Amino acid sequence: MATATTSRTTTAWEWRATGTTWRIHHTGGVDAGLAATVAQAVERDEARWSRFRSGSDVARVNAAAGRPVAVSPATLDLLEACDYWIRLTGGVFQPLVGGALVAWGYRRSLSDRKAYAAASPDPRRLEGRPQVDREHGTARIPAGTRLDLGGIAKSWMGCRTAALVEARCDDPAILVDAGGDLVAARGRHLVAVEDPRDAAAAPLAHVTVAEGHGIATSGFGRRRWQNGDGRSAHHLIDPDTGEPGPRTHATVLSADPVAADVLAKVLTLRPGRIAALEEAAMVLSGGEILTTRAWDEAAA
What we know:
Layout: E1 2-4, E2 11-17, E3 20-26, H1 32-49, H2 57-63, E4 69-70, H3 73-88, H4 98-104, E5 131-133, E6 138-140, H5 150-168, E7 174-178, E8 181-186, E9 189-193, E10 205-209, E11 214-219, E12 224-226, E13 232-234, E14 237-238, E15 243-244, E16 248-254, H6 257-269, E17 280-285, E18 288-291, H7 293-298
Antiparallel strand pairs: 1-9, 2-3, 3-7, 4-6, 5-6, 7-8, 8-11, 9-10, 11-16, 12-13, 14-15, 16-17, 17-18
């Protein structure tokens, strides 16, 4: 998780959304009216993309798995991005993990109820891709699968939020914080990367996030639980096995905030891929910290 540490931003608007705390860090140029507009925009996006809301595009696509469903243009955009990342990562990024999450006990938002299953499931490999029909404005997922847009939806929302604030405000230093995943809407920002083993410990690193860039962290630590059969679980499902992935954390800094989120998740599931990554990235795996050259150059 990254947190803003720059002295340039002195105030922040704060609200709850997507099961976490959102903030807009600024130097005084974001007024209450704009903050309310932004919070409402985030709420509309969450209402489209949360699998926990019965009327969302995601819930309706899941309910009709195997059949096309009319969805909003914004949802078509997001699902096309999902298809791109599935292909680019060789299926390590996989939004069709919703059924596995439910089976492992993550049925409802953790804001409402702790995840739990009396018995953990027999895991199986997860495959497939959402299909988009632009001409008819529909989306479809394979029968027997369920979408969970999770982190990519949150990063998408962070980008949309940053664009909205940047377009309506001339504050020179604006940073959107979606529960620790950050997007620099304007200006450069020094941020601290928390040690996931101990939030009270000194940060693992400080890095500068340039205007338009984003930083995201993924890992097993914050959404984890134990099922009735004693098996531990968390929210990052490895599509190759259908089981929760390794006890790993990864942070990625990228010129594309959505790429930062996706690649952080990929590195959490496949830590060894950091060796071939061009983006600034850090992986904490088995007590060892691995970094890319770009990360070392970005670190203060």
